[in-house]
Design goal:
Low-confidence stretches of chain A: none
Radius of gyration of chain A: 20 Å
Oligomer: homodimer
Number of domains of chain A: 2
Number of helices of chain A: 5
Structural class of chain A: alpha+beta
Strand content of chain A: 25-35%
CATH class of the largest domain in chain A: Alpha Beta
Distance between the termini of chain A: 32 Å
CATH topology of the largest domain in chain A: Alpha-Beta Plaits
Number of strands of chain A: 10
Order of helices and strands of chain A: EHEEHEEEHEEEHHE
Chain lengths: 253, 253
């Protein structure tokens, strides 16, 4: 729509992005296939006339959804915030949407300025699978015991070494994190595990969800969470829950 | 798995079917493309060894979803109900699921035995569209007035000639129907119109939803519903709401 003009002042744009991750290889651009970042960068390129990096609060894995991922991009945009929001939403596919676009101070950095994040893991807990929940939940046949799951979750809240819950292919060395809260709820067939922390290790929420499901179906005792944490060994915890049940819910600044 | 054997008694199987209609040309088999009926008949053919018709309570249009469509099929099934349920769910794609399979008396006919149906129309009412609700709702930007929509819906409840709300390509002559209830609700961004009747005309729920949206945004007055009904003219009512917001919720027997 315009070139790299200096007619328009340089702005730092904060975007709140919702996406259905089913058809994407996660947030971050990569060679394997289409990502949410790539889609946004391509749309913004059409407006700016050149490529500009769109940086998020953190990457989400392939297939993971977001209710409100936060990202920022700097550029000489020829549109005000409201017009930019409309333009971008009209250019991107239906499974990605911008909830808001806002010009923020230049020092705002979606990743570094983030203070905490909330993730929700959704389990569809019923004898038969659900067509309408298939893209957005993990189907567990065995009736989950909420009381046991809550008791197990309680042992994870606070500052702990979460090495046992870190994706085994991560190279991060400092594995202590502080979980502010974990809530386990049931509403009919949907069981949710919602957790907030200043930071999570790779696949930590999915590994916690996978372990809590083992507790809920009686294969791990709630108090064993203490032993699992102490072991600092990924093999001691439960399986990694599949990506399609995970939602990035909110990022706090 | 077995031929047209007489080893197994003839049973009439009632199935409750959930589907995400996004990828289907509706319920009923047709040349244009994949339908829910075809998927189920092909799976059942693999079990019976021959094709058998799967008849539903009624067809749903292309793109329409179902929480609990009801269908029945007769055959010499070599599996009991529980095993048949598991077998079929393992053979059909993730966007169709069977909630239950039950052997019922031979006279049960999913269409003719149906006493009433409940449909829900879902509107995502917010300034910006929602990626995660895109497949299952109609996005309306203008803030909808619940009070006006409820007042308008009130005029439709009861026995009326709904010719003004019938799809213009329908050849049905008897256009009197009896709406038992219409409920208009809001929960955050989601506005739902849920209606129950012994029978609906073609596209009647989508035409009612489209008209109620016109009322909710102030382009039709609630009391005009009386004039619209009296006109018996499709052109007097509002537009047909798009298929992706419609769900067949329940069929009563």
């Amino acid at each position: 729509m315009t070139g790299k003009g200096s007619r328009h002042p340089l702005r730092n744009i904060k975007m709140v992005v919702e996406y259905d991750g089913t058809n994407y290889f996660g947030w971050q651009s990569q060679a394997k296939g289409k990502t949410v970042q790539t889609v946004l960068e391509e749309a913004i390129e059409k407006i700016l006339g050149h490529r500009a990096p769109v940086l998020a609060s953190g990457r989400t894995d392939s297939g993971v959804h977001a209710l409100a991922q936060v990202a920022n991009v700097r550029g000489h945009f020829p549109l005000d915030d409201a017009a930019l929001l409309r333009a971008l939403n009209s250019m991107i596919p239906y499974d990605i949407s911008l909830k808001s676009v806002e010009t923020v101070p230049t020092e705002f950095n979606a990743q570094k300025s983030a203070k905490w994040k909330t993730y929700r893991y959704v389990i569809y807990n019923a004898p038969e699978r659900s067509a309408l929940n298939a893209r957005t939940s993990w189907h567990i046949i065995f009736r989950l015991d909420m009381k046991k799951m809550r008791e197990a979750a309680y042992h994870l809240v606070g500052k702990h070494d979460f090495a046992s819950f870190m994706g085994s292919n991560s190279s991060v060395k400092q594995t202590v994190r502080n979980i502010i809260s974990i809530e386990v709820k049931r509403r009919k067939e949907l069981v949710t595990v919602e957790t907030t922390s200043a930071g999570f290790l790779k696949q930590m929420v999915r590994n916690i969800a996978g372990t809590l499901v083992e507790v809920g179906r009686g294969r791990i005792k709630p108090e064993e969470m203490k032993t699992i944490l102490a072991a600092k060994d990924r093999k001691k915890a439960g399986p990694t829950a599949p990506a399609q049940g995970l939602f990035l819910v909110e990022v706090g600044y």
